[in-house]
Write a structure and sequence with these properties.
560 residues, alpha/beta, Pyruvate-ferredoxin Oxidoreductase, domain 3, Rossmann fold, 4 domains, 8-stranded mixed beta sheet, 7-stranded mixed beta sheet, 19 helices, 20 strands
């Protein structure tokens, strides 16, 4: 398994270089996992991306580097301490700095070719040669992604980079050539399309904006309208209105935008209009760190909006999960006529991973669930044992279909009757009984009779999975982990089963207060022994979990 970092200032073409490399590595058979770390700046600052690739499945990023592709001296200074002893630094021959490196006349060659931006293709070609990848892959990738007018000089630039170095690492081979390469935000968009999405309304807000961009580019091919609203309040109300009219609709944002949506969230709850809302989390409060990652919106999402009404909260764990759980969210929202909230984050949304081709046949339905009953006395909010009332589309058939933000009777007419209020509130809350039966238990991996039980949710899935493997196979621990996808209502069956044998329960979260641990305690009375928390805007890695857990266990006297 290999790991390389490409770093420099915003505007230096890092993303283009990485795009060429990760596609070429994947086409050569490797599994690819790319971390993106960038500042909230259009120009300058320090941005970097880390491509991890090998012939086995990769679930997390790593800080241990085989190589650094440095577009400026700052990249070397910041990351050289993470370079392995036999690692390399690749840079332009005119880059200043007292360090050993493979230096190529990139700027000089780019000037000769007449385009300074082809330095990215030069460095990409050199990296592929260092790792023994066939140069034909980069030719194919350039041909499919670069305008014809610029193709020839980029191919020449890549060939120059390829010919400027010697092979340093053997090609390991791999069986992932025919897999997909996708980021988490794209996976959400594809899952929504597969579920029958017809309207996506949103206002741009990092790190959720790429969902808009993807649907704007590809949505019309699938019959999806992507509407950029004037703000997040308009976006969610537009989605609710579209759903009321009988189509599947979704909105997406990050924490600050979701804060503006919470009143309309209550409208979805009381009017019983299904809607799917994606919150791609970033650190707050207020603007916080707009291009960084965190898991600090869990409790806010569970309790958002005033009053009480049923909802479901699903956290997305990886790039495969993002597709299938997004599609599932539409089915659950329709079936129970509730808002379903998806929690992603910048780490998952912007990172790229190799995944098996998605199978749309596994999706429950891609059409809205609309009642077909022929009843002249149609009651939109009929009291039922399940809490689910017949839903019809306004304008279709001889039925009066209403919706209101006030409390209402079975017809949908406004009321202030105390008895009706109680009946309606109870009816809505009875949906939770059915929803609980739909819950998916967290995924467990590791030793079945584990002494140490790790619990996490969402994008900590990959790092925790890697950490458990290291702890058990290398360190000799008896460790297991539960990572939650469905998170509200909280599924508890597997958790209650696993805690009986565990000597320590440790929650791992990207927030400062241990929000999952608090939810577990509130729901089950189970206390987590210790927490491993990270909230500096950077994602915890499997390696970091291992180090921090080992230190914690020594402090607690777990080791003799």
């Amino acid at each position: 398994m290999y790991n390389i970092l490409i770093g420099g200032a915003a505007g230096q073409g890092i993303d283009t270089t990485v795009s060429i490399l990760e596609k070429a590595f994947k086409r050569s058979g490797y599994f690819v996992y790319t971390l993106r770390d960038f500042m909230s700046r259009v120009r300058g600052g320090h941005n970097f991306m880390v491509i991890r690739f090998g012939n086995d499945v990769i679930t997390s990023h790593s800080s241990k580097l085989d190589g650094i592709i440095a577009l400026n001296e700052e990249t070397v200074n910041l990351h050289r301490e993470n370079l392995k002893d036999d690692g390399f630094i690749l840079c332009d021959s005119n880059l200043k700095g007292d360090f050993d490196a493979i230096r190529i006349a990139m700027s000089e060659k780019a000037k000769e070719l007449g385009n300074p931006r082809v330095t990215g293709s030069i460095s990409a070609g050199a990296v592929l040669k260092l790792f023994g990848v066939n140069p034909e892959y980069v030719d194919d990738i350039l041909e499919s992604s670069i305008k014809k007018v610029h193709l020839k000089i980029n191919q020449e630039a890549a060939r120059f980079g390829y010919d400027s170095v010697d092979i340093k690492y053997p090609h390991l081979g791999g069986e992932f050539k025919d897999y997909m390469l996708i980021n988490g935000n794209q996976a959400v968009a594809l899952g929504a399309i597969a579920a029958g999405l017809k309207l996506y309304s949103a206002y741009p807000m990092s790190p959720a904006t790429p969902i808009m961009e993807y649907l704007s580019k590809h949505g019309l091919k699938a019959g999806v309208v992507m509407e950029q609203a004037e703000d997040e309040i308009a976006a969610i109300n537009m989605a609710i209105g579209a759903s009321y009219a009988g189509i599947r609709a979704m909105t997406g944002t990050s924490g600050g935008g979701f804060s503006l949506m919470v009143e309309a969230l209550g409208l979805s709850g009381i009017a019983e209009i299904p809607v799917v809302i994606v919150n791609v989390q970033r650190p707050g409060p207020a603007t916080g760190l707009p291009t960084r990652t965190e898991q600090s919106d869990l409790k806010f999402t569970i309790h958002a909006s005033h009053g009480e009404f049923p909802r479901m909260v699903i956290s997305l764990r990886n790039h495969t999960d993002a597709f299938y759980q997004t599609a599932r969210a539409f089915h659950l929202a329709d079936k129970y006529q509730i808002p379903v909230l998806l929690l992603s984050d910048q780490y998952l949304g912007d990172s790229t991973s190799t995944v098996q081709m998605y199978d749309a046949s596994e999706i429950a339905s891609n059409t809205p669930i609309i009642s077909t009953e022929d009843n002249s006395d149609y009651l939109r909010y009929r009291i039922t044992d399940s809490g689910i009332s017949p839903r019809r589309v306004p304008g279709k058939g001889n039925y009066f279909v209403t919706a209101d933000s006030d409390e209402h009777d079975e017809h949908g007419f406004i009321t202030e009757s105390a008895d009706v209020r109680v009946s309606m509130a109870d009816k809505r809350m009875r949906k939770l009984d059915g929803l609980i039966m739909e819950l998916e238990e967290p995924e467990f991996f590791g030793e079945e009779d584990c002494d140490i039980l790790l619990v996490g949710w969402g994008s900590t899935y990959g790092p925790i999975k890697e950490a458990v493997k290291t702890l058990n196979e290398v360190q000799g621990n008896k460790c297991g982990a539960l990572v939650f996808g469905d998170i509200y209502p909280l599924p508890t069956k597997l958790l209650l089963d696993k805690v009986d044998n565990a000597k320590m329960i440790i929650n791992i979260e990207q927030n400062a207060t241990g929000q999952l641990a608090g939810l577990i305690r509130e729901t089950t009375g189970i206390y987590c022994s210790k927490s491993i928390l990270k909230y500096d805007g950077r994602q915890i890695s499997g390696e970091e979990i291992v180090d921090r857990l080992q230190n914690l266990l020594y402090e607690e006297g777990y080791y003799e």
